Amino acid sequence: MNKEWILKEEKIPRALLKLSLPAIVGILISAIYNVVDTLFVGMLNDTRAIGAIAVSYPLFMLIAALGQMIGVGGGSMISRFLGAQDKKSADITFNLSIGLGIILSAAATIFGVVYLEQILKVVGATPTILPYAKTYTLIIILGTFFTVINMVLNNTIRAEGNSKYSMCAIGLGAVLNIILDPIFIFVLNFGIKGAAIATVIAQFISTLFLLKYYFSKSSLLNLSFKKFLFKKSIFYSILIVGLPSFSRQVLVSVSMAVYNNALEVYGDTAIAAGGIAMRVVSIIMFTLFGFAQGFQPLVAYNYGRENYSRIIEAFRVSLIWVTIYSIVLNLMYIIFSDEIIKIFSLDAEVIKLGRLNLYSLNIFFFTFGVTTTVTTLYQSLGRGRDSFILASCRNGFFFIPLVYILNYKFGLGGIIASHAVADLLAGLFTLYYIVKIKKEIKKATRHCIQTGIN
């Protein structure tokens, strides 16, 4: 089946499934293998090692955010250019995205290596956790190039409607990481260092698999640095459209760092419990990101074709699906909270604090899926300012200030409750943007009908 046909003609529910399921499966596997790192490190029976994984996670998210910014920005532009039948601009965007990925990953690697210890202290590493965190994070930072380029290529492949290949690439990396983790951690006795080595090797192999797609000429796009052309308008569009994704992930990283710092005074156990809970909930979060990655090319392509009725139907179906999915998973996490935490640690205090974290993280988390979908819609339409505000609202406007305010007022319980309050406020904030964009799309649809478009 022609990849463009799915974007252009397929019934919306089927198109969303075909585009989103591979992305969801791939990113879910990716989220699971992040959790698996914690699981295998937890088998070392060392709370400091689990804490090291917790404080390093914001840095891994920050690295991924660079790739996501370029990939989402470039991918959205590519989908729109393909929808408008502008193949030349799509190729320019693709090659420019790769170039940006190389430059930013090199800069991030140098900065991360030089300032590693200072960064880890900022994100909440205690004196007892710091040596473990340095060992693990240094290797992750040295693999920045593969993480960033992996993100970029996954997004550009999805942009042309080939979500299945992207899923296979992510799945390959995840399976390799799960296989290599116990080998490097236990068989070769590398401990926490082994978990990081396994992650980087898996990312490397996955990146090679993605590059194979372009070198085998299966793509609608041409990878060729001979054709590399710096076009200022496209460069700025990539950054403007991708900035909300970058902002969202950076704020996730910053919020985790703020959270860990606030928990530092309550000890390594509090940090470990919070880290476990957030890793587990990241499975829901990344699944919703996966759905958004399938939703994005469908909207962007049809925006290029000025098919607004197709856009609004995709938006309606997406909101219903993500809300139902989130509520079901949130209830499961709340009901089985103790059993979930016990998978990672049998420490009684970790279980208790982990349970409270899961309660707070899940009670209003269904709003996260709604906000993510609305943010993606604005991104796909090229509305950088609005999507940036939406992407920033949960963590930037609400969660980070709430951690400080509620910690001052209520101590540890207040810090943990910050998750629930931030989710509720972000959901209410998003309602305004839902009403706003629906009115605009309906107005554009009426205009298209009057002028005879579509």
Describe the structure in your own words.
This protein has 454 residues and is mainly alpha-helical. It has one domain. It has helices spanning 3-8, 12-42, 47-83, 87-114, 116-122, 130-142, 144-159, 163-187, 192-215, 232-264, 268-304, 308-335, 337-344, 348-362, 366-380, 384-410, 412-451. Helix 3 (47-83) packs antiparallel against helix 4 and helix 13 (337-344) packs across helix 14.
List keywords for this structure.
single chain, 454 residues, mainly alpha, globular, MATE_MepA-like, MATE_MepA_subfamily, antibiotic resistance, MATE_fam, transmembrane helix
Helix proportion range: over 70%
Total strand segments: 0
Low-confidence stretches: none
Mean pLDDT, all residues: 87
Radius of gyration: 21 Å
Largest sheet: none
Distance between the termini: 22 Å
Order of helices and strands: HHHHHHHHHHHHHHHHH
The SS-based structural class is mainly alpha
General form: globular
Number of helices: 17
Strand content is under 5%
Give the count of structural domains.
Answer: 1
Organism: Psychrilyobacter piezotolerans
Transmembrane segments: 21-43, 49-71, 92-116, 136-153, 165-188, 194-215, 235-259, 271-292, 313-336, 356-378, 387-406, 412-435
Pfam family, one: MatE
Family: Belongs to the multi antimicrobial extrusion (MATE) (TC 2.A.66.1) family. MepA subfamily.
